[in-house]
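Q: Can I see a sequence and its folded structure?
A: Here is a first one.
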Amino acid sequence: MKLTMLGTGNAKVTECYNTCFLLSDAGRYFLVDGGGGNGILKQLKSAGADWRDIHDIFVTHRHMDHILGVMWMIRMFAQAMKRDGYAEEVRIYGHKKVLCILDDMAHMLLSRKEAEYVGSRIVFVPAADGDVFDIIGHKTTVFNTHSTKTKQHGFTMYLNQTDKLTCCGDEPYNDSERMYVQGSKWLLHEAFCLEKDAQRYHPHEKHHSTVKEACETAEQLHVQNLVLYHTEDSDPASRKERYMAEGRQYFSGTLYVPDDLEVITLDG
């Protein structure tokens, strides 16, 4: 399996794309969030991924930097179905309120004929805490992140019988997630800024964490590989070096601070 980071930035970035990523395995693709606009189409093209091959999409929550790119994906699928008989089914997973927003937007913004495919072949799959799905051939369990801002879900995907990849959405780890996060071979976790820059970016006011805090959490929960994303973009050229330098002080596993379009092979 491979992880392609289509975007790595927070909501207001201009030097990179908003955080979203693609998991691929044996020709099957799983898109997680879509960023804040039609830039998702450019990111997929730059990554060498054909949007037509994506049949499973997970939306962590309703914030614009996560959901609007998914609306563009819906538009592309609906137009293809209307135009040339695109025969595949697309499944979009998320909290029922998130799916209601997408459904409303689709029926308000798409043509009537395009919107006919929404709910029939573009299928909304409500996901609640503890729900288990088979996604691209892997057991995937959804969990509530207990966000105080908006309804948000993360997930744990089993790479094989024992190794798991866990995504915590874009908020810090909550102890209610321990059964999913603890012992993960791979953990995807937000890190808004460096610890020394907390007074500048105020991550806690935004319900985000610093690199130090994310790495301490991963260390305490015996994570093997930690991927940090959803960052500020003040100096993207030096971000990897700066974040790695801080993170390695607090996390003894393998640390990744990917750039947009970086590909990570998930051994497991």
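Q: Show me another, different protein.
A: A second, unrelated one:
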Amino acid sequence: MNAFRYQAIESSGTAVQGVIEAEDRRSALQLLGSRGLCPSLLEPVTGRAKVTEAAVAQPAAPEAPAEGRVKRKEVTAFTREMGALLAAAIPIPQALESLGEGEESGAFRAVMRQIGEAVNKGELFSAALEAHPKVFSRLYVSMIRVGEEAGLLPKVMNDLADLLEHEDEVRGEVVTAVSYPVFVLAFGLVTVTILLTVVLPRLFSMLQEMSHELPLPTVILLGVSHLLAEHWLIIFTALIGVAVGIWKYLSTEAGAELWDKAKLRLPLIGPVCQAAALGRFARTLGTLVRSGVSLLPALKIVEQTIGNRMLAAQIARVAEETRGGDSLAAPLRALGVFPRAVVQMIAVGEESGRLDEMLLKVADIEERHMRARTKTLISLIAPALILAVGLIVGFMVIAILLPIFKMSHAIH
């Protein structure tokens, strides 16, 4: 009998690790499957490292945090360059050393040095990456592990780089689209605040001296200006307190779940969020399947990386149905998460043995919908913000001019 060290996911989604004894790797996989475990790592244990099976199903040890902050674009560039070096048959330690020497970020250079040291000590590349969960996501580590086991690490890294680059491109388009409305809103708030707290108090003191009976719009504006000028610190502190309170609530499980549900149900914003989440689901799952990850572990990984708790719960239900032997399309059709045409494409992909290709096509469709809906949303938000700022400034101008007109009529 041989000993195999494994890391796996239970049906409840809990990560476990331990050692199992079996005649060979296939027998170990079958034994783990019979226990309801989905292995993400399975490697032989030799020499003094052997332990008994008493360690089975113990919770995985907490992962050590990464030092410093590493930008996403740095990870994307590293993945592409590492894939090219491995395709050129350069060993992993030498490739890491070469990339580390040219890395400008001190934080990422330190991470690569730690990974290289771990690999030199005999650790798997995926295990060394897993020690830095703030830099390399669960999806990233899982795909690298599959590439190691299948002997296709360069290809898997190129697939992973394609995925990261595509996500960066989509994220960049969204940021570019919303930057103009955000600028308009910020500029309007700053302008109105300066007028109310600096300019208008001096002007109104002069108007009050010239006329004791001010029009109603002028009185309202004078009251708002006085309130902001005299109590700005209290108002600012209160706004900060409210913002911090909301942020802390959304950081809780109940708050995050409520926000995830609200994002999908909000008018105009909901369809954009849903299309983005479904596109991410299809692209991530398609990339995992194309890289050789079996469907059930791939669904578990996608469940934890989709970024929306409501959709993650539905994906967990899909995974349970798939565990029972059903196809992917059947539970998706029953849940009604995807449009019927999309589910039909997935069913065709399963029947033809091209599930990964169909999932990636579904991702393209959903991402096109997300882009179109984002453009529509921005085309509505930008004029609305400009109109709102214009109405506020217009009211302020009218409130200032009314007493002047009143005094001019009194003189005549």
